[in-house]
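Standup notes, protein team

Yesterday: finished cleaning the Nocardiopsis aegyptia set.
Today: DNA 3'-5' helicase structure.
Blockers: none.

Input for DNA 3'-5' helicase:
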Amino acid sequence: MSALAITPTFLDDFSRLTPEVQLNTLAAMRAYQTGDLADLESVADAADPRVRVVAIDPDWSGVVVPEPRPGRPEPSEDAQYRLITVRPRDEALRYARGLRADTPVDTGAAARVEPPTPTGPPELASALNAPFDQWQLTLHPDQHRITEAHYKGATQITGGPGTGKTVIALHRAAHLAELDAAAHPEDTRESVLLTTYNRALAQSLADRLDQLLPDPTVRGRVRVVTIDSLARSVVQAHSSVAPRMIGKDELARRWRAVAVADGLPFSGRFLVDEWEQVILAQGLDLLPAYIRCERSGRVQHLAPEHRRQVWETVRRYVGAMRVEGLWAYPQLAAEATRLLAADGPLFRHAVVDEAQDLHPTQWRMLRAAVPEGEDDLFIVGDPHQRVSDNRVSLASLGINVRGRGHRLRVSYRVTQEILDWSMPILGRRAALGMDDNADTLAGYRSLLRGPAPVVRGCADRAEELAALGDWVRVWLEAGVRPADIAVAGRNHWIVRGIAKELEARGVATAPLEGTGRAEAVRVGTLHRLKGQEFRCVALIGVSDHLLPPKAAIEAADGDQVALEHAVQQERTLLFVACTRARDALYVSHVGRPSRLITEQW
Ligand SMILES: Nc1ncnc2c1ncn2[C@@H]1O[C@H](COP(=O)(O)OP(=O)(O)OP(=O)(O)O)[C@@H](O)[C@H]1O
């Protein structure tokens, strides 16, 4: 079995083909590999008889040349071929006639060893052509002004995907550390907190901050940590036992079992949500306050006698968790807040990325960790990318950002083509900002142009995985670094299938949530793509029977509002995943495509 290789310049040609011809090209490459392709055709009157053409479909052909093999100038039966270009048949034949197999390839466009990068205005050219990890630190002078301004209190930066929020957060943390080093040279303690949602993002921030702050005495002033680790470290400092954390799904499973045994009319999920989204979110300690409270965002109405029953049940279940030493994440933040209130703040400044997903208890903890004052909280987020259930009104938590906000409208990562394709996924519903105002993406646009996303329909899973493998190979052969490619699916079993397929083809993979720098294609769930960025992103399993997942629909239990909320969350998740790509987005499905990408809202 021999594979048809491609020249480094090929991707440039390839990205200009229509999606249909692209797919036919990949099919032909696979047919060659499995020996199912009709023979390569010789070209009449060719300047070099070693040049061949291959039919891609009735109208298009590819031009191939044998791979050079030292000491064997003549093509042999077992020659390996390399695909140089795909063109309309007549043009391909004309091109093949004049081509010599051993001359450097000129496909008509300027020959480039690099795969195509998006194009943009001249001022962005050098950033786009820089290695990807250097590009990830780029900022515009206007954005620098935001990072270096002096604010009388908390400030909020919002903007759609790729508008530079994370990079602004990074530069802001670096700026605060430098100011702090100048103002307090004797006091070298950590004074700036840079926090985000998950560990992979925190690690990426820490790595990039190392580059921005090479001086260890300045870098040492910034603590980069997830919001959960911060809570854990505060609590752990007061106890000899490390808190054992339990996630929401696992907690719901356990509570469901006890609720059924107790003969209660509430599901485990309902009780956990009620505890996290109402009781902990509002910081309610006493039953009368719970009976009086407004349960905004909750679907099912609860009469006072039911609230009493819920309260009593939750109290018992939380008591049992305490005996086991188990903690839920928002609960741990509430405990950390209590401890910080007694011990006093830890930092002078905090910079918060992915702020839209923090729970109210985590905001209270941040408030307790950083005293109110100038330049205290720098809050960066996008309400359109909220993938958690957490809804936050900063004002209700005593954090006032009024008059100190910036909205970023220009994307420097997502091309206009990917934006145009991805925006309809979100639907038309406005998101509610943390400042209690409706947040729209009006005016959001990109300065970059690139190829349109490719959507591929497959007959079955095997075909979908094979097509994915082909596509990743094209990216790799075109010179994209494996670590700059991400492949994701909605469920863990899809992810396992992806990893298996790529590994079987000799492509090394590493988990998306991993923090290492391995030269491997990143593979994981859509959730794990959050906040990250890649040159090329492939999403598979975007099929109607998988997305939105049945479990999410069933959990709504026929309640229309809950169902809309669940579907909206799936929309957001897919939108976030699609907008991680800078250079190329590939989406595939089996059978009908997901209604999230086909339904017009
Ligand atoms: N002015 C600029 N010129 C060139 N590149 C830029 C500019 N501003 C930001 N970038 C680059 O664009 C990319 C996207 O920025 P960033 O990740 O900060 O966006 P974001 O708003 O946090 O995105 P998301 O919300 O999708 O996570 C970064 O790699 C960044 O270096």
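Follow-up from PR in the comments: The longest strand covers residues 581-590.
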